[in-house]
Amino acid sequence: DNRAMKVHLFCVFVNLLEDGDVINEQQCNETDTLPIHSSQIRGCDEIEPKWFQNAYDIPLHQMFADDTVWLTMLLKHYDTSMQQPMRQKLMFDAWFHFHPGGAGTNSMRHHFVQVNRPVKSVPGPMDGLVQSAINDYATYSKSKNVHTYSFEKKLFHALHNNGINSPTIKEFKENWAMANAVRTFMKDENSMLAVIDVAGGHGALGALFLALSPKCKTAVVIDPAEVRGKDGVQKAWGQFWQSDSANERSLRYRHECLRTGLRDELNCMLSKQKIADNHERNSSPPLFPTNILVVACHACQHLTDETLEIASEYGVNVAVMPCCQKDHDGWWKGLTKRLVKSNNTESTSLSIGTVMDLLAAGKMLGWQTGSSAGVRYRVKMKLMDEGISPHQNRMILCRAESRESGRKLQGGKEESPKVLAHEKLTRAYRRAHRQSKNEVESPVNTTEKRVPVQSIALDKLCVQSLMTGVAIGAALAFLALGSQRRSLVP
Fold it and tell me: Which residues make beta-bridge pairs with 17?
């Protein structure tokens, strides 16, 4: 039962006339303000007009909850545009979803406001001001098609047109922001042929990859609990990825702990490669580790750590947004407090959540992370808009890359970034010490090169000087021996 009440609102600017003033029709045609006597504005059974000299005196706390959104937006818009020679009209569509209880509850569950591009404001005859506004909106609707929404808005309205309240508006915005951040970082759609949503609950994040990425074939949601709303996501968004039976794409739920469920799903997905290699099944393309993406939005600290650990063992792409960070070993909490105390300013302090997220990102950057699977990780941390998630908004994005990949040189040989960095350091060392290429090949070998330099110097010594030194040494030894013998005589 999707009951809704549709309301059309029109903003009319009036100029109150004193008693006895006559309306000037010519003046009405030259301005968009309607001259009117106060007695012409009357109430009805449901509403009684009340005048306020100052907008800040409007008792919003005694009005419907949605008035605090659209009315304040409208007043702000026209307060700014009053200074302009031609006032721009504000047109918007808004949806407000209230909690049950009506006026007694007066609480919004969520809302959505879409501001439409206004038609150029042209002053018209004041005797038909309201009708002119209706005509303007009708013209705008036909020419611009106000119901042509962005894909984000289509997904949002699909949820609530089906009466689905899970995911909530906050969860929807978080999942939308994270899905787009991950897609931008991964760049290649082949990195998301299969998506595993860990601790996904209703599965909105995994479903968004199916809807957004044309090449994504399957999304699996792993969560031990059967949460409310999982069927709703399939019902509302299935239309966006179920195009034809020949290109079947699926959203599956697996109610199991990630320790066993994630490993088993990765084993199943990667086993398709072995089957395809044996020519036993050619209906679906083989999946490689770099074709799989594991995601987790608002996963607790230990879930985040285990997700990253398992993903790196298999060498697949992974993206997480941790929450509820805790220092279980207690090694970093004390340092965080000392940093806050030494900085003595709140703006430069590091929270324990930030420190733990940085450590998690550092683990993925480790030299040996992913080595067993033959990959290394390119890691980036991005922040979600604080208006969507104010505190736990740090996303750790990890793209798996083959350890054998490098830069191709002219001869067709590939060199890794470490080799290229070492060559760059060697050139810098040579310039700093003004050495030629023949004298030194790298800073590491400088000690070894000094040995032949010293031997060359010995070869160039004068023979006469050498014989003189030997003679002096023999004379000193003879004198020392004679002195020793005299001291032994009784």
Answer: 37
pLDDT of residue 101: 76
How many angstroms separate the CA atoms of 295 and 307, rounded? 8
Q: At what angle do helices 352-364 and 333-343 cross, to 10 degrees?
A: 120
Q: Are 429 and 443 in contact (CB under 8 A)?
A: yes
CA angle in degrees (0–180, nearest 5) for 219-321-366: 100
Question: How many whole angstroms separate alpha carbon 91 and alpha carbon 139?
Answer: 13
At 446, the amino acid letter reads T
Tens digit of pLDDT for each residue in 17-28?
877 676 666 655
398-426 core/surface letters (b: 16 or more CB in 10 A; e: else): bbbeeeeeeeeeeeeeeeeeeeeeeeeeb
The partner residues of 414 in beta bridges, in order of sequence, read 408
Structure-block tokens of residue 324: 């509820």
For the segment 374-386, what is each residue's pLDDT rounded down to a tens digit? 999 999 999 998 8
Within 10 Å of residue 154's Cβ, how many Cβ atoms? 14
The pTM of this model reads 0.59
- pLDDT tens for each residue of 33-71: 778 877 778 888 777 888 888 888 888 888 888 888 888
Quick check: 317 and 296 in contact, CB under 8 A? Answer: no
Q: Give me the torsion for CA of 100, 104, 107, 111, rounded to 10°.
A: 70
> Is residue 114 classed exposed, middle or buried when 0-12, 13-18 and 19+ CB atoms within 10 A define those classes?
middle
Pairing relation of β-strands 414-415 and 407-408?
antiparallel
What crossing angle do the helices spanning 230-237 and 204-212 adopt, rounded to 10°?
20
The C-alpha atoms of residue 429 and residue 442 are separated, in whole angstroms, by 8
Q: What span, in angstroms and rounded, lies between the C-alpha atoms of 19 and 7?
A: 34
Q: Name the nearest CA neighbour of 384 among 294, 298, 300.
A: 298
For the chain, the C-alpha Rg in angstroms (whole number) is 38
DSSP state of 414: E
